[in-house]
């Protein structure tokens, strides 16, 4: 109750920001080192920037002086986003490349293309998300939500990690990875969180599949944070809940969250700019320096579910995912 009231009132937490804070506000004072006049221009990659929270995240990062890479499956839509960002920030450098996160081959192709540009990489925001009402399979014959939201981002992170570690070492600027998750990860029960069933469910439920993929995003961040720490890499990884924003992904929940529920819950909805604030805060704030393996909501560290904090679950999921990717792509992965 107290938490809901704080949320509704937009009371600021220890970071100085709260549920009402916008992406522009949380990046206004904190990131002077990012301004174009600074020598070290940051390069940020934002998935899912062709709509909703991702578009706003890309816009604000570009406004703050970062070079922004937008991987998109629809390059026409991406070109429109680029145009609108450059209308506001004419000097913004925006790079568009094709990706379909639900396809291992496409993610691999994208990474080769990006790496061949020889650019640094400071920030990776794994933001793209999909909600599938009906059971659909990716070209790799994996359930579409899990393939897109979790596996595609896992592989993307894997293939870009050495570049991020190298960039951080050369620039002296901490690299940051952000997995955009959701509060809905709380709904997942441990007995339904089974890797083989998530790849190929026999009794499909769209909301459950979506929640499982969002739990996997947090477990990924937590396990990878432990690996990065063990390697002494100057790269952090955290998960965020952006808040509830009426974007494309919510509109896909037809029948589950109806318009009437939305009407009643309208006080809880965030604007897109408020929805992009937690990703932008974790990506740019000096206050999150060295913070890794955590879960953020409303621009503050927050609690995730017991299952999301379960180290053995995170480790098992990590091993199963790597083994799958290894098998499918014949990649040589370091255990
Ligand atoms: N909105 C909310 O209330 C809410 C709440 C909690 C968490 N989230 C999370 O926030 C993130 C952003 O969601 P949003 O609300 O901004 O949703 P959105 O407006 O539907 O945007 C989703 C983005 O993901 C991209 N995408 C989907 N499938 C893809 C694929 N196979 N390959 C490449 N890109 C793909 C979409 O590209 P196209 O333009 O090509 O479709 C779009 O750019 C998601 O991770 C979502 O789970 C949202």
Could you characterize what this model shows?
This protein has 335 residues and is α/β, with parallel strands linked by helices. The chain has a single domain, classed as 3-Layer(aba) Sandwich (Rossmann fold), CATH 3.40.50. The protein is built from 13 helices and eight strands. The chain has helices spanning 2-9, 23-26, 52-63, 75-88, 104-116, 144-171, 195-199, 206-231, 248-251, 259-264, 272-275, 277-284, 311-329; strands at 43-46, 67-72, 94-98, 123-126, 175-180, 235-241, 295-297, 300-301. The protein has an eight-stranded mixed sheet with strand order 3-2-1-4-5-6-7-8, sandwiched between helices. Helix 5 runs parallel beside helix 6 (144-171) and helix 8 (206-231) crosses helix 13 (311-329). The chain starts with a helix and ends in a 6-residue tail after the last helix. The mean pLDDT is 91. The structure holds NADP nicotinamide-adenine-dinucleotide phosphate (NAP). The site of NADP nicotinamide-adenine-dinucleotide phosphate (NAP) has 29 residues, from helix 3 and helix 9. NADP nicotinamide-adenine-dinucleotide phosphate binds next to helix 3 and helix 9.
Which terms summarize this structure?
about 325 residues, Rossmann fold, 8-stranded mixed beta sheet, 8 strands
State the end-to-end distance.
44 Å
Instruction: Tell me the helix content.
Output: 40-55%
Unreliable spans:
none
The CATH homologous superfamily is called NAD(P)-binding Rossmann-like Domain
Ligands, deduplicated: NADP nicotinamide-adenine-dinucleotide phosphate
* CATH class value: Alpha Beta
Structural class: alpha/beta
Give the overall average pLDDT. 91
